[in-house]
């Protein structure tokens, strides 16, 4: 996989948490829960993030946590069930992903495998970053995002 090393700034986010097996259910969470909430609170046309809080290879599927996030200003106050958090600044390997939701886990697996084999992967928050003008093809389900993994200095 081709990737770039980028220094990314800290980002303040509002998020809703999904808990359960990773995979197709996360796409449904975005569609049925997060996007309607985002629209209701005027948070469309902003960069969004998907943050896996647990490693599905070591955490029981029913206990895996995933946060669907949107960038917000320092003044933004979240109303429950939303919470405020941040994505830490740091040095990240960033690769472009284009495909369907079903292809995301394999892409993550390949990217992690490559960075571990190269000795570059570091501990920290890994996330998907979706552009402010994010769009999914309604026929094919194909979309574009960046996969970001912390790397050693």
Automatic annotation (TrEMBL):
Family annotation (InterPro entries): AraC_E-bd (IPR010499), GyrI-like (IPR029442), Reg_factor_effector_dom_sf (IPR011256), SmbC-like (IPR050908)
Matches recorded under Pfam families: GyrI-like
Stored Gene3D superfamilies: Regulatory factor, effector binding domain
Domain AraC effector-binding: 1-152
PANTHER family: TRANSCRIPTIONAL REGULATOR YGIV-RELATED
Protein name stated in the entry: AraC family transcriptional regulator
Organism: Duganella radicis
């Amino acid at each position: 996989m081709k990737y770039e090393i980028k220094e990314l700034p800290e980002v303040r986010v509002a998020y809703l948490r999904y808990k359960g097996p990773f995979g197709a259910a996360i796409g449904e969470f975005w569609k049925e829960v997060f996007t309607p909430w985002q629209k209701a609170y005027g948070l469309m046309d902003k960069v969004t993030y998907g943050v896996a809080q647990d490693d599905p290879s070591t955490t029981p599927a029913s206990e895996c946590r995933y946060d669907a996030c949107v960038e917000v200003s320092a003044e933004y106050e979240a109303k429950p069930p939303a919470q405020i958090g941040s994505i830490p600044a740091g040095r990240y390997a960033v690769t472009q992903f284009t495909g369907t939701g079903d292809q995301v886990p394999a892409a993550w697996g390949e990217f992690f495998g490559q960075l571990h084999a190269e000795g570059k992967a570091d501990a920290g928050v890994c996330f998907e970053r979706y552009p402010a003008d994010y769009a999914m093809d309604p026929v094919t389900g194909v979309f574009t995002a960046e996969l970001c993994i912390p790397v050693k200095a």
